[in-house]
Amino acid sequence: MALVLKQLGGFSRLNAQCPTYKYICAGLSGGSLLYAFYAQVQKQWREQEINFRKEQLKKPIYELRDEELVSPPWNSSNLNEWLYRRVRVKGRPLHYLQMMVPRTEFQKPGYECVVPFVTKENEDQSVQEGLLVSLGFVPYEYKEVTDRHKLEDASVQSFDCFLSQLPELQDNSFGNVANRRNSQWYYADLQLMAQFTGFKNADKIGKVVLEKANFNTPLDERNMRTYDLDADHHLDYPYLKSNSGILYHKNHMPWDWQRAKQQALGSTVVFGAFGALLHLAK
Length: 282
Prior knowledge:
Probably involved in the biogenesis of the COX complex. This protein has helices at 2-17, 20-58, 79-82, 190-197, 243-247, 254-280, and strands spanning 62-63, 86-93, 99-105, 108-121, 128-139, 157-164, 177-178, 183-184, 209-214, 241-242. With 282 residues, it is an alpha/beta fold.
């Protein structure tokens, strides 16, 4: 009992010296509680987003044919019905017009490689139409086509992709400078990328990118193999996302927000208890 009184006496002197301490503690406790509520909302939103992507990826693959290859069936009014859905497209990639957006994967700097994908053109290739396709992640040392130890396949081919807006590459802190003489990309500006292609249908394709992926992988957000490659990176680049990579978002998964909520609730209790002691010791 004497020890408790002694401690309270110390708090009393502290409170007398600076009575605003208890208000600071109350403010910190209230702020922590508000952040815990925010983290809970973010956790629920992220769970809903993961479930939405899963349901979209489970739908049968949709093959674009004929006019759909130049006038895609998605637009501003129905885009949410198509995002993360799997589609199959046929055409040829223009590697010399690649759009390399900086990103880091596996603690290794590199680029998201987005290319114009021709689906229709006249005989002399002077008029072209097509789509935007992301081929995957390319290590920084292979940014330029001429630096690669392989010949890129520019023939007509079929790709299985999913619809994406590259949300993880939308930080526009720096502006893009993009034209056919000087292509410099800092973030994924899909409208500007569509214009950069020079396609006749550029105004119709700036809503999404078709990302290549390996869909023969576990549809599990807790599977940490987010790209289709082994630990030694033996598989050939560009590295494709796995199904778990489509569901994953760095540092913003439900368990990250759950941990943040628990830490905030702990801070709420600690600051609240300390403020109460200061108040009792006045």
